[in-house]
Write a structure and sequence with these properties.
transferase, four-stranded mixed beta sheet, Rossmann fold, methyltransferase, about 40% helix, single chain
Length: about 300
């Protein structure tokens, strides 16, 4: 059998396996398709709730040198519970804001879940990530997605972005007074409020390597205008301290905005764990690990597919 025939056979097997798995296990389907297509085009297939799908290109590199996000997307292990949280929140016509979109996994997933009547605004400042993100949106015809090549903060202007040479998800804004010899690029900076304007927003996902507090400050009007909003926030104590910032500042700001119900996303157990600020502070001291938080003004629905434990 020729190499081309093998490629076609593996692709067909990937598609049939994903269909058999079904939309309830989209992460598994993406893993199967991703591994089988690895030798052909280094892509994964994201499957929506109703069986709709989109093919995502990963960064081009040899597998042994692929970064953490790419490797986890291929294995289907990339933030599976966060995916389920989005599936529970985003419905047809929803508006989602993805701050720190990287190459677009959650952007593409949100677009599939929201459908053609929905809207997704994706922010990504780093040039290589932005190029792949833009390609992933265009190749799937996701016209409901608006891609903004900018970092989000509490002001509009420009700022230096520190580039991580091995991990595409670890680029971050340079803190005031920070010294170092690593590669840096100047990027545009804006606020969520500036881009969103008066549009309704249902979900905001923020993953910006410790600078989440500035993002929250720059979306004060969006929070005020959307009392039913849910924020999915990467809580990165180590990265925040590296930048000389208070790791709990974004949590405190969101509490002040009325989003007092806070949950830790347990990726390993497919659950949400209710937590208060002091418990979160204690957790930071013990582990220092980054986790995703879900924050809302209303309690998490008791009948959700993602259960809550106290």
């Amino acid at each position: 059998m020729s190499g081309q025939s093998v490629s076609r056979a593996l692709t067909r097997l990937a598609d049939l396996t994903a269909e058999a798995v079904g939309s309830a296990h989209g992460g598994v389907a993406a893993a199967v398709r991703g591994v089988l297509r690895l030798g052909r085009d280094r892509s994964v297939v994201v499957v929506g709730r109703d069986g709709t799908s989109a093919t995502m290109r990963l960064h081009e590199s040899r597998f042994s040198g692929m970064d953490t996000i790419g490797s986890q997307l291929l294995s289907g292990s990339y933030e599976p519970t966060t995916r389920r949280v989005l599936e529970a929140l985003v419905t047809s016509g929803s508006t989602v804001v993805d701050v720190g979109a990287n190459i677009g996994y959650f952007t593409v997933l949100s677009a599939l879940l929201a459908g053609p009547t929905g809207r997704v605004i994706a922010f990504e400042p780093e040039p290589r990530n932005h190029a792949v993100l833009t390609d992933n949106v265009a190749r799937n015809g996701l016209r409901q997605v608006m891609v903004v090549q900018a970092a989000c903060a509490d002001r509009v202007g420009q700022h230096e972005l520190s580039i991580n040479s091995s991990e595409t998800g670890w680029h971050r804004l340079v803190a005031a007074g920070e010294v170092g010899r690593g590669k840096r690029v100047v990027v545009e900076v804006t606020t969520v409020d500036t881009i969103v304007g008066e549009s309704p927003v249902d979900v905001v996902k923020i993953d910006v390597e410790g600078h989440e507090g500035a993002v929250v400050t720059g979306m004060a009007q969006t929070l005020a205008d959307n009392p039913g909003i849910t924020v999915i926030l990467e809580h990165s104590p180590a990265q925040a301290r590296l930048a000389g910032l208070d790791p709990l500042a974004p949590v405190t700001l969101l509490h002040q905005a009325g989003l007092r119900h806070t949950y830790v996303v347990r990726e390993d157990k497919a659950i949400l764990e209710k937590i208060d600020v002091e418990s979160l502070r204690s957790r930071d001291v013990k582990t220092g690990r980054s986790v995703n938080l879900v924050m809302r003004a209303q309690p998490w629905p008791a009948d959700s597919a993602v259960p809550v434990v106290s």
